[in-house]
Amino acid sequence: MDSEALSGAAKHTERASFMGAFPARGENAPCPGSLDAGQKFRILRYLFMRCKQFIIVSLAGVVLAASLAGCGGAVPASSAAASSVAASSVVASSAVTEAALPDGVYTADFETDSSMFHPNEACNGKGTLTVENGVMTFHVSLASKKIVNLYPGLAADAEANKTAWLIPTVDTVTYADGTTEEVYGYDIPVEALDTDFQLALLGTKGKWYDHVVSVRDAVEKAAEAETPADGTYTCEVTLEGGSGRATVESPAALTVAEGKMTATIVWSSPNYDYMIVDGEKYLPTNTEGNSTFEIPVAALGTPLTVTADTVAMSKPHEIEYTLTFTLE
């Protein structure tokens, strides 16, 4: 008898032995207590054999799947999609939990996958993130008005979801040389920080383009002191930088006109011949005595970086300082 016949005979014997412990369909089942030791043994052996077969088949499936993956074999699309969706859900859920921020206003980096789609150069790659009732919105000023709409999602879905298009704002940016320009800005909903997401853009030629962006490294903005009403005030001035030998008079006079602040700075030396503030040069307002300047103050309580040129040395030398103004 060949091996296949022997195998079939063994299976027949196994089934027959097992069925010997139980009646045929329709007959009354025996009481467990009425089974003899042989019948109990046959039942246990049968169950063991069936479990062993199941384990062997399962292990074979695992080995086969691993082999296919190692050799570049295709995994069924439905299984791959289900796994991908499940993994994405776990990652997204984790990201949202980790990215939660208290309500407030933050500065954050705006990163994109394109050199043609980025914050305006005047913004140094940053925008403003506002968190209100746990909902995050990021405002970014772009380089021009050439991006006429944004859509949070894929370009292919944009036309079917016009109500979700982001409408531009008109922002005025100020460049380092003092010139200004009107550009488009956008308020972008953000589900999670430090996480890539799809953001499609519509150009002036009417075509949508897919892009991947992210909002990263959020830092809470320091509360800025309000500009006082028009008038004349005195304020404390803190000077930092340089060699530490120079000082400025404090308190100093502060004038507010049409909402703009100007401080009178009196140095401890007559040797300063100009100051530079925000890229603009200011000359002394006096010809005798210690060097005196009138310079603009952007905000109270916030360090203002300035450059002062001194002629006290063998040749003129520019020195960088910071001035902080606080109302008395």
Give me some keywords for this one.
about 325 residues; alpha+beta; eight-stranded antiparallel β-sheet; seven-stranded antiparallel β-sheet; disordered N terminus
What does this structure look like?
This protein is of the alpha+beta class. It contains four helices and 18 strands. The chain has helices at 3-19, 37-70, 77-99, 155-158, and strands at residues 104-112, 126-132, 135-141, 147-151, 169-174, 180-190, 197-198, 200-203, 208-209, 212-220, 231-241, 252-257, 260-266, 272-277, 280-282, 292-297, 304-310, 317-327. Helix 1 crosses helix 2. The termini are far apart.
Which structural class best describes the helix and strand composition? alpha+beta
Distance between the termini: 110 Å
Element order, helices and strands? HHHEEEEHEEEEEEEEEEEEEE
Mean pLDDT, as a whole number? 80
Strand order of the largest sheet: 15-14-17-18-11-12-13-16
Largest sheet: 8 strands, antiparallel
The proportion of residues in beta strands is: 35-45%
- The number of helices is 4
The 3D shape can be described as elongated
Low-confidence stretches: 1-21, 71-99
Q: What is the radius of gyration?
A: 38 Å
Helix content: 10-25%
**Count of strand segments:** 18
How would you summarize what this structure contains?
The chain has 328 residues and is α+β, with helices and mostly antiparallel strands.
